[in-house]
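User: Can you predict the 3D structure for this chain?
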Amino acid sequence: MVPLAPRSHAFVYLASASPRRAQLLDQIGVPHRPLVATRQENVERLEEERSGERPEDYVRRVTLAKLLAARARHRARGLPDAPILCADTTVALGRRILGKPADAEDAARMLRALAGRTHRVLSAVAVSCGAQSPLLVSVSHVRFAPLSERVIGAYVASGEPFGKAGAYAVQGRIAQWIERIEGSYSGIVGLPLHETRELLARAAVAYAP
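Assistant: Here is the predicted structure, written as structure tokens:
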């Protein structure tokens, strides 16, 4: 068990441009400030898969790589000291990792693969505070009903799949086709709040839970 930080912190840096993660922190009352990459940083490079890599190993590696980049960003900008929170979410169908779709055809292909089947959503969250950077992973299972080509086409045309792991947003219009969820809804959205709360407590981030 990682010990609590020696003093409390009034806020946490969120090293993510995801509005969903910011909204989830707002939901539980955690004060946060953005610590996002500039256009010069190639964040997508950090998300590149490695041959034979398991989804669990992938989501851990990417989260820690993003956290390391965020720590360097924090130092370079000379920002006030505070814990840094970073997260990554991936969708896995067996050992196959379904990342963000490259285009409409790729999104449709992913949705066809998920239709009528159960897949895993793995969300890793890490909080860097001092020398410590503990990380926790939430694993959830999501089952889709069968999806017709008409439904898939309309969903892709809505634009919602883009920028989303697995080409879907559980909080969006696709929710009507989700038969069952087992695990963490917030983790599927992109930030598992149970694990986040535990890490924020270890980092002594002061907020009213």
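The beta strands are 12-14, 32-34, 84-93, 96-98, 118-128, 135-144, 178-182. Residues 1-5 have pLDDT under 50 and may be disordered.
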